[in-house]
Amino acid sequence: MKVRTRFAPSPTGYLHLGGARTALFSWAFARHFGGTFVLRIEDTDLERSTPEAVQAIIEGMQWLGLQHDEGPFYQMKRMDRYSAVLAEMLGAGTAYHCYSSPEEVEAMREKQRAIGEKPRYDGTWRPEPGKTLPAIPADRKPVIRFKNPLEGEVTWDDVVKGQITIANREMDDLVIARPDGTPTYNFCVAVDDWDMQITHVIRGDDHVNNTPRQINILLALGATLPKYGHVPMILGADGEKLSKRHGAVSVMDYPAQGYLPEAMLNYLSRLGWSHGDDEVFSMEQMCSWFNLDHLSKSPAQFNPEKLAWLNNHYIKLADNKRLADLIKPIMHEAQFDGAPDLEAVIALLKERANTTVELANSAMLFYRQPQPEAALLAQHLTDAVRPALQAFAAQLVTVTWTKADISAVMKSTLAEHGLKMPQLAMPLRLLITGQLQTPSIDAVLELFGREVVLSRINQGL
Questions:
Q1: Which of 290, 364, 382, 447 qualifies as a FRET site for 265, CA 20 to 30 Å off?
Q2: Distances in Å between the alpha carbon of 351 and those of 257, 338, 339?
């Protein structure tokens, strides 16, 4: 059996983190076994599905690098196929027309609630041997209902949760086509999984209640059942369901906030799955390890600090040109003409950056005119320091312009004037960059270059 998995989002909004993790697990499982990963857009909810949401899903998948092998398939383009299957089921007696109005169905349910029963469709139009059905209303279009088994139970070995059993009496006859003929969610999913020969369905555990309905439809069609695995949801750090109040939950919020896709993939991998104690690994490694054996039965907690730590790790590993291409569009007010090489600046700064946005903000000190606060200058550029600063500048005129030689001149100047490093470094930082917090001052001076450094020192003095 060749493994075939699918990711089947509904385009009613952005690609959220839970959906991205489902896509990642399905993709990695297919890659592990040399199988096929299918992208399917479940767009039959016409009121809520939008082209913008479809585009957001595809862009999120592309940013993460989760390339599909087949698709994207759109359910709304498969209406002829669904109509044919519905006709077959009506002919086979596994589905039937139901003329009960929504108001009549709600009245049934209210009556059942009143006597303590589970609310459900009561089977008024369900054909049975010897049963006389009501007269068909002249002014009403029917829905099509699936003729769910009345006895027995549905059992499957969930690859995450273990064996799950649902009694058929807990399910009523599901509407599988609306009065206008458009098919409903569970019916379309079952037909699609059958047609696309999906072998493994990996999805969130909010779909557990859909699974027995889809299994019964597949059995009625004579289809081979896929294996199902339902992954627990992702919670916020407070233990509540992840939502907008926890920060960004759309995948495409994260590149804008300065996260790298490899960091997001690595982080999502560890939300509900593990490989020993490994925390940092490539997607090649994950695909070689991922086989569903170590998926957690417990909800995963989203930890922004852990994601930031991973992102810092991948920023440090990233090519400086790639990082330059990412941060240059963020640096709107940067003056690049005659300024230090951006890749060299990135090499100096990226060790400390958790995001590319932080990296861009840090890099800006090399690409704007310094505007030190007068109070800070008065505090650090004292009469005791001025002679040392003048002597330091004089030696910079002829020194070989390397970090090591600049550092040596600084040390000799400090010794000659009886000062400590902060007494010289602080006013230098203010005059050169306009701020007190920078990387090592000798490295900063080296990047700015002799002409800029001498100009700003002399201007400050």
A1: 364
A2: 18, 25, 21
Residue whose structure tokens are 């006597």: 115
Measured between alpha carbons, how far is 235 from 246 in angstroms, rounded to an integer?
9
**Count of alpha carbons within 13 angstroms of residue 121, beta-carbon side:** 21
Q: pTM for the whole thing?
A: 0.91
Q: Which amino acid is at 234?
A: I
DSSP summary character for residue 249: -
* Three-point CA angle 274, 276, 278, nearest 5°: 80
Cβ distance 8 to 192 under 8 Å? yes
Q: Mark out the alpha helices in 201-245 (DSSP H runs).
A: 210-220
- Whole-angstrom distance, CA of residue 321 vs CA of residue 333: 20
Determine if the peptide bond prior to 422 is cis (ω within 30°): no
Residue 4, SS3 per DSSP: strand
Q: How many CB atoms lie within 10 A of CB 344?
A: 15
- Among 4, 444, 421, 424, smallest CA distance to 224 is for 4
Secondary structure element (H or E) that encloses residue 425, with its range: helix 421-433
Q: For residue 156, give the amino acid letter.
A: W
Q: Phi and psi for 152 in degrees, rounded to 5?
A: 80, -165
Helix (H, G, I), strand (E, B) or coil at 334: coil
Q: What is the mean pLDDT of residues 118-128?
A: 94
Query: In Å, how far are 103, 117, 337 from 108, measured between CA atoms?
Result: 9, 11, 76
Q: What's the confidence (pLDDT) of residue 248?
A: 64
Cα torsion angle, 66, 69, 72, 75, sign: negative
1: confidence class by pLDDT, cuts 50, 70, 90 = confident
Report pLDDT digits (tens) over 163-201: 999 999 999 999 999 999 999 999 999 999 999 999 999
Distance (Å, whole) CA 353 – CA 222: 56
CB 396 within 8 A of CB 409: yes
Residue 247 reports pLDDT greater than 70: no
On average, the pLDDT of the chain sits at 95
From residue 18, give the alpha-carbon distance in Å to each of 25, 265, 266, 300, 302.
Answer: 11, 12, 14, 10, 10
| Residue 115: DSSP 8-state | T
Tell which residue, 169, 153, 174, has the closest CA to residue 86: 174
**Which two tokens mark 366?**
């090399």
